[in-house]
Amino acid sequence: MDTKSTLDEKKSSFLSVDIPHRLGHIASNLARVRSFCNSAFKKGVEVVIDETEWFIEWIAAEIEPEQAEELVNIQVQLVRWQINLDNIFLDEFRRGEVAKLAEIYSQRVLDMSGLLDSVA
Fold first, then answer.
1. Cβ burial, residue 41 (10 Å; 0-12/13-18/19+)
2. Burial class, 29, CB count within 10 angstroms (exposed 0-12 / middle 13-18 / buried 19+)
3. pLDDT for the residue 48
4. Distance CA 39, CA 35 (A)
């Protein structure tokens, strides 16, 4: 299967769920970035960052402007990490910083989703 059809399938699947669950997917991916950084799984970080960038692209026009701004800011940070990933993975301290920030972002997006509010 080629990359284009794989991406089309991901997009179709992502867009088939409601916005809170789409935000939940983004939060989950950010949590995986944290986990993969902690376990020094560079390829996992690369794949999840790519996917998360697409998810943000696909949802940004459908959410409140303030939420879209927050996600785009996260997307910019993801691109920075992507560009510097080799250096990040050479430095345990920097990798830890990325993991902590990914966890903060994950929690922010999860809060934005409102998914935890509906559990109570």
1. middle
2. buried
3. 97
4. 6
Answer whether 0.85 is exceeded by the pTM: yes
Whole-angstrom CA distances from 7 to 1, 10, 120 are 10, 5, 35
Q: Which of 53, 36, 48, 47 is nearest to 89 (CA)?
A: 36
CA dist., res. 15 & res. 104, Å (int): 25
CA nearest 99: which of 59, 58, 49? 49
Each residue of 69-110: pLDDT tens digit? 999 999 999 999 999 999 999 999 999 999 999 999 999 999
Cβ count near 85 (within 10 Å): 16
3-class DSSP assignment, residue 54: helix
- Pinpoint the alpha helices (H) of 1-120: 3-15, 19-38, 42-59, 65-83, 85-90, 92-113
**Any idea how long the chain is?**
120
Are the C-beta atoms of residues 44 and 36 closer than 8 Å to each other? yes
The domains located in the chain, with CATH, are 20-113 (1.20.120)
